[in-house]
Amino acid sequence: MIQALYIIYRIIVAVLALLVIWDIIREKSLAHVLSLGLISIPLIMRALMIK
Amino acid sequence: MNLTETYLLLFVMLAVVAVVSVLFKGKNGLISPMIFVAGLITALVAGMGFRLREVTEGPFVYVDNLMWVLCGAIFVYALYLNGTFQFLFDKWRGAKLGPVARLFVLILFLGLPGMLTGTALASVATTGLIVGRYLLDKGIEKTKVVEVVTMGSLFGMLLPPLCVPAMAFAIARQGLYPASFEGFFLPILVLTLPALIVYCALSGRRLLEGADAEEQVEKKGGAVCLIPLLVVVVLVICHNFLYFVMPFLGYPVIYVIGFVLALIFKCQGVNALTAASEGIRTVSIELAMILAFASAIEVFNTVGVNGTLAAQIKIAGVNSTLMSLVFALLLLVGGAVLGTPFAYTLGAVAVYQVSNANYTTGSELLMMALGVTVALTMLLSLRGGIADSVCQQLGVAGVTGPGIAKRNVITVLLLVVAVIVFLCASGLSVLMI
């Protein structure tokens, strides 16, 4: 169960990171781009398991 | 490090954020990144060079919570696009209830996205838009419409299961990494519910005059669209209260299940990618604020501000409860005058000092109460509060957060009193099931 959850959570975080990056590319408001940029950093790091 | 250096560094950080808050006129999305810049400047002034690592390391603590909120936002936006919220709202339109009960149900409906994501802006962008447009079309005064949506979004953010500001402070408490926001369902419900009931009792008649129940309401779709929401509600309640019999799933998995169900059981077609991307957008600014808060904590720890202040407070023998109350007051006043990002920056000092001073008695509920104080600044703030976002969303102007707070002094005072009670009564930790 734990192993399955580990994989599921890693998939979720990777998908979230991709969605945030996609949002950054489409976004027109600077405030949102900057906020999304801040959010993307920890998500990408976790998706790639960079500590 | 001596005290003069400590105060100087504290001043540099707070001054940069204060100036930016004034210059950017409450545009929180622009201010949050500037808090990171302020952190870099503070580290430079402290003679530690360009410390990119510390500034980016802090936010890493919130990765799990980011997942909770982002998945919640995606689910909520799917419910908005697939017509579930409109279906629920149509039910409210036809419901024959007294004004108090009618406002209570409306606030719960408005707050639903806020409860699931812990953010106010998720409510503003979804249920807030539905309710706001309807009430404006009904000819209700714009001040009343903005008030209903603002208060609904505020209560939604405060009500369980999630509350981003409370989560930010609870996770940030020192010495307990990796901390989690579990067991706060009942405490935050107890803190918020009395104010919500009083608000509805006092304002029901005043606000909903002219928005009586409709005889004929054209409904789109069937009750089947409620299945995803019901499944998520059941799973969230089980996660919080029946965790000893139910296998652990966690909020991200629960919300992903809800999202998939929302794509199947719907009132109208919904594009999964649009729902996901727009959902993320709605909560991005509030999430960026807690990441900036985490960064500020890391900077204050790195340059020695938090440690030096904690040592001096210990030596001076300051009463821990009094200190908690003073910090809560500073957060409230600072946030009201300069905006929520400033309150978060000040909170980076408060969270360390309060948790350190109350380390032996348990600081979880103190942190939650400080978080709720910061959440309150989103209503009271002179710039960049929930009311500003509501006005922008509904295309109206001239209604401010402090104005709404002034009309609802008793409700705001009740919330403040509840915060004080939680700051003073450590015995309330029995509520943490």
Distance between the termini of chain B: 42 Å
Uncertain segments of chain A are: none
Which percent range fits the helix content of chain B?
over 70%
Q: Biggest β-sheet of chain A, characterized?
A: none
Contiguous helical run count of chain B: 21
Strand share of the residues of chain B? under 5%
Unreliable runs of chain B, pLDDT <50, ≥5 residues? Answer: none
SS strand fraction of chain A: under 5%
What tags apply to this protein structure?
heterodimer, A: 51 residues, mainly alpha, elongated, B: 433 residues
Plain-language structure description:
The complex is a heterodimer of chains A (51) and B (433). Chain A has one domain (2-44). By secondary structure, chain A is mainly α. Chain A is built from two helices and no strands. In chain A, 84% of the residues lie in helices and 0% in strands. Chain B has one domain (3-431). The two termini of chain B are 42 Å apart. Classes of the chains: A mainly alpha (51), B mainly alpha (433). At the A-B interface, helix 1 and helix 2 of A face helix 2, helix 4, helix 13 and helix 14 of B.
Question: Briefly, what is this?
Answer:
The complex is a heterodimer of chains A (51) and B (433). Chain A has 51 residues and is mainly alpha-helical.
What does the secondary structure layout of this molecule look like, with pairings?
The complex is a heterodimer of chains A (51) and B (433).
Chain A: H1 2-26, H2 30-47
Helix pairs in contact in A: 1-2
Chain B: H1 3-23, H2 28-45, H3 52-57, H4 63-81, H5 84-94, H6 99-117, H7 120-125, H8 127-137, H9 142-158, H10 164-172, H11 185-208, H12 227-241, H13 250-264, H14 272-303, H15 305-316, H16 320-338, H17 340-357, H18 364-380, H19 386-394, H20 401-407, H21 409-424
Helix pairs in contact in B: 1-2, 1-15, 1-17, 2-14, 4-13, 4-14, 5-6, 6-9, 6-11, 8-9, 9-11, 9-18, 9-19, 10-14, 10-18, 11-21, 12-13, 14-17, 15-17, 16-17, 16-18, 17-18, 18-21
